[in-house]
Amino acid sequence: MDVHHLLSGFCSTPLIQSAKTQFFTKLAHPSASTSFAQSHNWVSFRACPCNSQRALSRIVIECKSSTERTGAIASDKQDSRNGIRRKKLAVFVSGGGSNFRSIHEACIRGSIHGDIVVLVTSKPGCGGADYARDKGLPVVPFPKSKNVPDGISPIDLVAVLRRLEVDFVLLAGYLQLIPVELIQAYPRSIVNIHPSLLPAFGGKGNYGMRVHKAVIASGARYTGPTIHFVDEHYDTGRILAQRVVPVLANDTAEDLAARVLKEEHRLYVEVITALCEERIIWREDGVPIIRSKENPNHYS
What we know:
Blueprint: H1 3-8, E1 23-25, E2 35-39, E3 42-46, H2 52-75, E4 87-93, H3 98-109, E5 114-121, H4 127-134, E6 139-141, H5 154-163, E7 168-171, H6 180-185, E8 190-194, H7 209-218, E9 222-223, E10 226-229, E11 239-242, E12 245-246, H8 253-276, E13 280-282, E14 288-290
Parallel strand pairs: 4-5, 4-7, 5-6, 7-8
Antiparallel strand pairs: 1-3, 2-3, 8-10, 9-12, 10-11, 13-14
Helix pairs in contact: 3-8, 7-8
């Protein structure tokens, strides 16, 4: 089924033309007009040709309902943020998703002026995806691969995020290179967290425990998480925020990873809070800085 046809009833301008698109979400009441294959609490959803627009509408409504639920919880615990609307967030994961969980919890309690509306994953069976399904969040597999034959294409992914009105894309342990289609669709709106002080110990293949082992082996005295905007390459986008963590003399990689992860959770929530409150300023030289909430004349 042509995805352009699927979306044409819900947007004013053509988005894409592609075929065989699938979306993954929970269906509370599947009807006789849809076909689906269920496995381990998630559904591979295919729109029937006779009811394609109704099928996609159902998916979008499910996503929006999730947003409204989380937004309603948070709205009781925060002010209007000076008239700034709540932002819609897409999170990408490939593993356990501890940063994803931290972000989601911050949205629920109102620390972040936004809501996660969809999870995108390269591993539909990972812990992060399980957490999302448990919380009623839609899960979209991307990209298509030998292990994920039902993954969608980059163009289809952009169309899904556009339909959900996503403002920011947050990478939280996502181990795939972001396609140029997504980068072009979301300029200065995709951020990633890396467990070292970039540009040190970054690049393709440097992730997770590999980074911490390399830091210790190098003799570096300091490390820590970096949050940066995403470009077409691994870990080379503009740095937005960093947090220094000392490397102790007797550290194992596991010891260091645990301390860095605590700072990752704190720093990522702080940065996403600033993003959603529109406190990111771009200097003339192209460097992003964060305006202080308490003092608008101070930056970090």
